[in-house]
Specification:
about 375 residues; alpha/beta; TIM Barrel; about 10% strand
Length: about 375
């Protein structure tokens, strides 16, 4: 039995052209050697972080105390101490993934770090923070995460034109993804027009999944309760757990369209890399659904799937790899269209807008909570 047959993750990567990244980062993971083991044993080819992940990693963890004390002695602010901790973890993770980056010629091996979520709707601050993060981390395989808000997209374009790798995050609506892809292209066009190299810039568009089903399923459950008509109930039940994957399949069709356009071909001739779709929010929230449904159903070329540790282990154990991203595409369009049915009547655009707002909030709250707990720790350690 080959390594790929023993581990479906390796088969997904070698046979179907999808990269598996991990959605988790902590100093424990780096210093214990576990991160290196995940690369060699599980085939993990990149890593993503966000404020919620860092809150879990740092809050209440003594492993960071020495650096916090050093920050106190250096009279750094809480924000500066936070950055010192996070930047060190990101730099060390980048160094660990550098071998993957080199081996894949810059396709994989990236480590993502998000600009502060509190500036998600401030274009200029996002641009300046993204540039500062990139300059301070000084690693060619770092990706700066910028939210795909209306204010974030011009920042994506500007930052790409500066030659900085970008992970466009919090994409829910297909139209938001389309805008993110064109922002990447415009950024490359601007850079190319200045005669600068565009061959080493990488970007992914992080398209969120499970949160969509969680939200739509709640709306469906409410509508099921409100009707006694068996046909209507059956129609509603048939849509449960189906929207996120259908939405992702439609987005992939848009990806193919955009990256086969003449505008893209002109950039590809200059060495540009396609901006890959990255499936995010991939842990299944509903125990009635398969714990690897957001992996199995969306395997396909030129994509990334970023999995939390529990989903990585579940996938290594029982994923069923096959190229499914383009299977049942007509059915995917019909599923989305059926939300407009008078018996269903779910406004998908409204759902996506709400998810984006909630998504920002889900990063702002842990960020603020982390800063607050760090402030407390600074006070405690300062008196020791």
């Amino acid at each position: 039995m080959t390594a790929a047959e023993k581990n479906p993750i390796l088969e997904i990567e070698s046979k179907y052209g999808q990269s598996i990244w991990m959605d988790n980062l902590s100093r424990d993971l780096i210093e214990s050697g576990e991160l290196k083991a995940l690369i060699s044993d599980r085939g993990i080819e990149g890593i993503t972080s966000n404020p919620a992940i860092f809150e879990k990693a740092i809050a209440g963890n003594k492993i960071y105390d020495t650096d916090i004390e050093a920050g106190i002695k250096a009279e750094k602010s809480t924000e500066e101490i936070y950055e010192t901790l996070v930047f060190e973890d990101i730099c060390n993770a980048c160094d660990i993934f550098k071998e993957v980056y080199d081996k894949t010629n810059g396709l994989d091996g990236y480590v993502s770090i998000e600009v502060p979520p509190t500036i998600a709707k401030d274009t200029e601050s996002t641009i300046s923070e993204a540039k500062r993060y990139y300059q301070e981390i000084k690693r060619e395989n770092v990706m700066i995460k910028i939210p795909g808000t209306q204010e974030g997209l011009p920042a994506v374009e500007a930052v790409i034109s500066e030659g900085i790798n970008v992970n466009v995050t919090l994409l829910f609506a297909v139209e938001s993804y389309v805008q993110a892809a064109w922002a990447y292209i415009r950024g490359l066009e601007k850079r190319a027009a200045e005669g600068k190299d565009i061959s080493k810039i990488a970007s992914v568009a992080s398209f969120f999944l499970s949160r969509i089903d969680t939200k739509v399923d709640k709306l469906i459950d409410q509508k099921i309760k409100e009707t006694e008509d068996a046909d209507t109930q059956a129609k509603l039940i048939a849509l449960k757990g189906k929207i996120a994957i259908a939405n992702a399949k439609v987005a992939y069709q848009k990806y193919k369209e955009i990256f086969s356009s003449d505008r893209w071909k002109a950039l590809a001739e200059k060495g540009a890399k396609v901006q890959r779709l990255l499936w995010a929010s991939t842990s299944t929230k509903n125990p009635e659904y398969s714990d690897v449904m957001y992996v199995d159903e969306l395997v396909g070329p030129n994509t990334v799937n970023t999995l939390p540790p529990s989903t990585i282990e579940a996938c290594a154990d029982h994923c069923d790899p096959a190229s499914r991203i383009e299977s049942n595409v007509d059915a995917a369009y019909k599923v989305i269209e059926s939300l407009k049915d008078s018996d269903v009547n779910i406004d998908i655009n409204q759902v996506m807008d709400e998810l984006l707002e909630e998504g920002i909030d889900k990063f702002v709250k842990p960020f603020e909570s982390l800063m607050s707990s760090l402030e407390e720790k600074v006070k405690q350690l300062a008196t020791v």
